[in-house]
């Protein structure tokens, strides 16, 4: 792709000009954006870059392994893998407000990045995979309309007192362009084609308070759902899909017994940039089969519902 080849060269020049001889820390989230940003910056400045993957305990099943494998084995880019799940889950205990969750997570991310920066003798820059839609939907720090829909942690959710300056080479791109750039940079298709995953992770897919037990249930249900989508060949048709664990228990019946377990909500949308979205029209047979699998395979769930809300008026995530 000609435009992406040109963009790549231009951005590499810009990154070199901005960073000079400085050191950069790049936070990887497991999503496409931060991975593309990291590979691009690595191309620009090589070992002035340190990538940090923070396991905040809010990742999907096997996510840490997938990311670590990609960076250490495929790219040979040094990667620091920090297990900060105790700290994150500890501070999130009892937090139910969605914006407080995001801000808490944003603050902790910076604390971890600053800790890691210290270990390498200080860093001057923090790199993030912020995209154009993130910039316009989190307008609170950047001026513009006074309504913040959500403070994306990689834009508005950052504390103001941060010591490092930001490097955000994808700030002008939309998701489909980031994917093109990822291909241009040689990222494996399985990674480039992954659905978006928000920095705050499963915290915003677990409305109400977050516990390890709930996260385990959610992780398993989500894995079954995505497996179903892949098996039916629908993954690439859908822009984003995930499970949500509702903070509600309902009554069910299994064998001769009564159950009283959680409800799982399923979300799937089509979109081009995440700013607007339509709910995906699965056929009922797919949904029925998926519900049966989740209930049979995931202990703690006895009911499954499908979200038929588009954006607007809904957002894609539930928080
Ligand atoms: P919403 O829920 O705002 O989501 O319709 C639009 C897209 O943005 C992702 N998202 C986030 N990504 N930090 C991120 O890095 C966040 O705080 C955040 N909130 C939402 C969401 O997954 C969807 O792809």
Automatic annotation (TrEMBL):
EC number: 6.3.5.2
Pathways per UniProt: Purine metabolism; GMP biosynthesis; GMP from XMP (L-Gln route): step 1/1
Keyword terms, alphabetized: ATP-binding, Glutamine amidotransferase, GMP biosynthesis, Ligase, Nucleotide-binding, Purine biosynthesis
Coiled-coil residue windows: none
Binding site for ATP: 29-35
GO cellular component: cytosol
Record carries keyword Hydrolase: no
Protein name as it appears in the record: GMP synthase [glutamine-hydrolyzing]
MF annotations from Gene Ontology: ATP binding; GMP synthase activity
Subunit structure: Homodimer.
UniProt catalytic activity: XMP + L-glutamine + ATP + H2O = GMP + L-glutamate + AMP + diphosphate + 2 H(+)
The protein's role, per its UniProt record: Catalyzes the synthesis of GMP from XMP.
UniProt domain GMPS ATP-PPase: residue ranges: 2-194
